[in-house]
């Protein structure tokens, strides 16, 4: 046999080391999935609650001329891009960057190390992005919007459907779309305009946090599936290499026996 048993043995050892690594990363991802899904659900519930208030206010006549509800006067876009802190998560990061290409004229503000590597300075961790980070960022973005520094605010994130399915998407946050719900029967103190002015930054903060938590849950799920796939591939490679190694070893033994038999007949 032409196979080098020493080289095959070294390759088996190398792939086996990789298998241990993928199994370990898969276990880490599995341990994070439950907590990530819990945080995603909590953030989504809060966003939904504040969104209901915004819908009531945006449909009232008193808030019709509020600057947060104005129609965009141009196409200047500021887009938050949420990606992961690490790789080895299948196509999670690549899908986000591919999706962002359709907004090439936008100003990007990254969240997550891989997004910062791609778009420049921003928030270096999506996993450790906190509610205080979201609140600070939301207030800053609302001030910039009122100063007319951009016309539309969006967030590119990854929607979580299941552990096997996550899809890049964009959510437009500002300006706020006017609701058809007039809010009749709802009383706001001191008045609708004042409440809306204070509620919008809280709403933007809630949407940012919701998108970050959903993206992180998607990243963890994608990494779990990627490590499972890598583990299966590694096991198959080891099995194939083991067969080649056994054949090569048997061939070497057969050759040695042949040489010994031939030598004894001389």
Spans where pLDDT lies below 50 across 5 or more residues: none
Report the total helices: 5
Query: What proportion strand?
Result: 5-15%
Secondary structure category: alpha/beta
According to DSSP, the number of beta strands is 4
Q: Which sequence of SSEs, written as H and E, runs from N to C? A: HEHEHHEEH
CATH superfamily: ATP synthase, F1 complex, gamma subunit
Instruction: State the end-to-end distance.
Output: 25 Å
Taking all residues together, what is the mean pLDDT? 87
| Main beta sheet strand tally, sense and closure | 4 strands, mixed
- The geometry reads as elongated
Outline the fold blueprint.
Elements: H1 5-58, E1 77-82, H2 92-100, E2 107-111, H3 113-119, H4 131-146, E3 152-162, E4 165-174, H5 192-264
Parallel strand pairs: 1-2, 1-3
Antiparallel strand pairs: 3-4
Q: What would your notes on this structure say?
A:
- The chain has 266 residues and is α/β, with parallel strands linked by helices.
- The protein has a single domain (34-225), classed as 3-Layer(aba) Sandwich (Pyruvate Kinase, Chain: A, domain 1).
- It has five helices and four strands; from the N terminus they run αβαβααββα.
- The chain has helices at 5-58, 92-100, 113-119, 131-146, 192-264; strands spanning 77-82, 107-111, 152-162, 165-174.
- It has a four-stranded mixed β-sheet, with helices on both faces.
- The radius of gyration is 28 Å and the shape is elongated.
- It starts with a helix and ends with a helix.
